[in-house]
Structures are given as C-alpha cells and as structure tokens.
Amino acid sequence: MDIRQLRYFLAIAEEGNITKAAKRLHIAQPPLSHQLKQLEENLGVVLLERNTRKIQITDAGRLLQNRARQIIDLFERTEKELKDIKAGQLGTLSIGTISSVGETMLPVKIQGFHEDYPGVDFQIKESSAFEIIEWVKDGIVEIGIVRTPFNLDTFEYIDLPNEPMMAGASDLFWDDSGGCIDNLKKLEGKPLLVYNRFAVNIEEACWKAGFEPRIVGKTDDTRSMLNWAGLGMGIAILPRDACSLKSDVKLNFKEIKEESLVTRIVIIWMKHRYLSTPAKNFLGLFNT
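RE: above sequence
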C-alpha cells in the first residue's frame, strides 16, 4: 500500500464509479482497476463491491477511506514542512490586517522582507479585527495584525507600541488651540463619532469623567468616520495610526490623555499550530 494507491482508492470511493474516478485522475480505467485490485489483495479485504450500476463501499472500505484522508493530509503537510526547511526562500505568506496598519506600517515591512526573500509571495487581506481573529483560528491566514482589546489566550503574539486615542475635527469644535485633551470633560456636549468596537470603552471613560457622551455616529470604517468629521458632523475618536488614512480631509487632531482608551497593535498567530518558515522569518522583523 502506498500514497498513490490511497489517492486512487479515495477517488473511486468518492466518485462511486471507476470511469469517473479515472477521468478525475487523468489516467486510463484499466490501470486504475488494476491498482484497486492489487490494493485489496495486499490488504486481504474487499474494499468496494462492484456491480453494473454503482460501486458500493464495504465496512473495510469505509474504514480505509477515513484513514486514507488522514494519511494523505499528514503526508502533504509533512512534505510542505520539509520544503519549508529550505530557509523559507519559497512559498506564500498570508496575512490578515486592519486597514490602518495595512496602509501605514505593513508596506514598509513587506518591502524589507521582499528584499531578503524575493521568492516569497504575499496574500494580504484587510478586514475588522474580529474577522481577522477568526481567519487566524480557521487557518485562512497564518498571521493577523489587529488592535486590542480581545482575548489573547489562544494566540502567540508580539506587542507593538501603544497607540493613544485621538480626537479629530474641524476647528469649529475646539474651544482652544491646545495640543491635547487632558480631561475628557472637554468633550462633554460635543457630537462624537466612534468605532463600534470602542464605543463601550469611550462611553465608560466619559461616565467615569462625570458626563453622558453625545455619540452621533458609529461605524466600522475609518474613512467614513474621517469623512463625517471633515463634513462637520462631529469629532472623530480613533487610534493615532488611523488619522492619516484620509489625507484629503483636513482635521485638527488632539491626543486624548486617557489611559483607559489606550490601545495597542498586536501580531498574532495560533498556539500549537505549525508555522511556516516564511511566517517565522517575517515575525523576526518585529523582534529586532
């Protein structure tokens, strides 16, 4: 019994027909039938009952079908891991990232990485932090670049520098020319535009400061929030690295000096899961 015979057997079992399986495998029908017969003889069991209409899988065949899938999957993963030992010079690295990082920090890192590993291709997917976290769990991407807070228990991660929240608006909403907001009370009564995922944090910080925030807009899209602020709808509350995503919108930004609203970017990957050599090499850029 070898991997080729297992692949042939799986194709026949899944197609339920030797002719269809032969077409799927791009081989002639007689050699495929011969390989199946040889496999049954070597194992000493009948795997498939043949009749004129359809092939019926036996109990022994059903057991081998399940095991064959596992064996082939292990074989393919082992083969891939062995190829990756070649210092990660070839392959594809899949990364999920929030948009602010995808347009600011990430391009610089990718450029540097590409100079050292020109044979590694990239697949970059942008989305919300919540979706990226699910992508990492499901293996759709190897690495996620997201913003806290969220539960990190199932991940390995690298912390990047903290990011304060910023308040951006036209000068119409500012009472002075100070460069920061050292007291949230300065936002009392003013229309606020916030991220959905940070809304609760902002509300709690304002309540702690002694007032009910006036939130007039919530969104998951940074550009929409900056556009709204540019149109005079209110004050956009967003992390510092997201402020530059709409350079055509002229806003006056002030740093919010509130520890409970500080966020950080983290690079995550799954614990106890194989990590490709290109991924390891890429992560190394952030440990130097």
